[in-house]
Amino acid sequence: MEATIALRLPRDAASVPLIRQMLDGTLRSLGVDSQIRDDIELMLTEACSNVIRHAEPSDDYTVSTSVLDDRCIIKVIDNGGGFDPDQIINPEPGAEHGRGLLIMRALADDIRFVNRHEHGAVVCLEKRLRYAPGAAGLYLMAM
């Protein structure tokens, strides 16, 4: 089974709920466990928020999501200045901002960053899916 959603979005906070709702609706329809869906929603929100906050001078970004049997793969691609995740300093306890990478690393089963030096960045997040008993996703995987 493979389900894919790909959207090119304006680099604006109003774009985040759109892709979040589309992906959650797909995962819900397949019968993915609610805790897994919540983790995916938070990872996606953090990745998109980082693009919106930091990916200058880009006007837009792309989110590509795929459900491949028991995995969800999310790629958030921007055309900004790029970044090196190893150079990001962890925030102080109680800081209001700067926890996005920590949250994504904590929730993802796999996370990869591709810095395209002055041509943006790609954040790839993977999460193993759990399905409810009798879920459509389990049936489709078996085919």
Question: How much is the radius of gyration in Å?
Answer: 15 Å
**Which regions contain 5 or more consecutive residues with pLDDT less than 50?**
none
Principal-axes shape call? globular
Main sheet overview: 5 strands, antiparallel
CATH architecture assignment: 2-Layer Sandwich
Q: Give the helix/strand class.
A: alpha+beta
Counting structural domains, the number is 1
CATH class: Alpha Beta
Q: Count the helices. How many?
A: 4
Query: In angstroms, what separates the terminal alpha carbons?
Result: 8 Å
Element pattern in H and E: EHHEEHEEH
Total E-strand runs: 5
Strand order of the largest sheet: 1-2-3-5-4
Helix content: 25-40%
CATH topology name, in short, is: Heat Shock Protein 90
- Overall mean pLDDT: 90
Give the DSSP E fraction (strand runs of 2 or more residues).
25-35%
CATH superfamily, please?
Histidine kinase-like ATPase, C-terminal domain
Question: How would you describe this protein?
Answer:
There is one protein chain. The chain is an alpha+beta fold and about 140 residues long. It has a single domain (about 1-140), classed as 2-Layer Sandwich (Heat Shock Protein 90), CATH 3.30.565. The protein is about 35% helix and about 30% strand. It has four helices and five strands; from the N terminus they run βααββαββα. It has a five-stranded antiparallel sheet, with helices on one face. Helix 1 (about 15-30) packs antiparallel against helix 2 and helix 2 runs antiparallel to helix 3. The chain is globular, with a radius of gyration of 15 Å. The mean pLDDT is about 90.
